[in-house]
């Protein structure tokens, strides 16, 4: 009996080490695996607690659970017609988000794993009509840096160092999208940065 208990302990220990995700997070990831996730809303008390919690870095980026998270985020973002989405918005407090690269001709979606803003403009701009999938039916103007320099790991495991710019919705506002999603992994929302 002791041998079986010991074997089960070792099995649980080693299988849990392979993934950066908890059992409850895996439930979100693999529940209807090929379907979008439910987007958490600030109007729900339980959802709000998750949205207001700072996220943790991903330690093992070569992980099938991380791939499933990216897939789930993408399906959800496309279904909800968003330009970005962060893992906390589907109930997973990990430092991962997707964002549209409006600075590129093909306007591709990129994954940011363990992102950091390493420098930014001194100047703040008032970005018009910021909105959020987690703040339903509301829009507001938010304070944002006019440019940011960032570091992150992309979907291919490549380290990226990039400068993004802000601006208006009619131009390239990749930097605004990045800042908005970066706020999510830090437990913040655009409604915390309202300007006139």
UniProtKB/TrEMBL annotation:
Check the record and name the InterPro entries matching this protein. Peptide_deformylase, Peptide_deformylase_sf
Query: EC number(s) on record?
Result: 3.5.1.88
Q: Which SUPFAM superfamilies match?
A: Peptide deformylase
Q: Name one GO biological process term.
A: translation
Q: What does this protein need as cofactor?
A: Fe(2+)
Give the cofactor note text.
Answer: Binds 1 Fe(2+) ion.
Q: Where is the signal peptide?
A: 1-20
List the catalytic activities from the record: N-terminal N-formyl-L-methionyl-[peptide] + H2O = N-terminal L-methionyl-[peptide] + formate
Instruction: Locate the residues binding Fe cation.
Output: 132, 180, 184
Q: Which CDD domains does this one have?
A: Pep_deformylase (cd00487)
| UniProt GO MF annotations | metal ion binding; peptide deformylase activity
Q: Does the keyword Coiled coil apply?
A: no
Q: Write out the entry's keywords from A to Z.
A: Hydrolase, Iron, Metal-binding, Protein biosynthesis, Signal
* Positions annotated as active site in the UniProt record: 181
- Role description: Removes the formyl group from the N-terminal Met of newly synthesized proteins. Requires at least a dipeptide for an efficient rate of reaction. N-terminal L-methionine is a prerequisite for activity but the enzyme has broad specificity at other positions.
What family is reported?
Answer: Belongs to the polypeptide deformylase family.
The name this protein carries in UniProt is Peptide deformylase
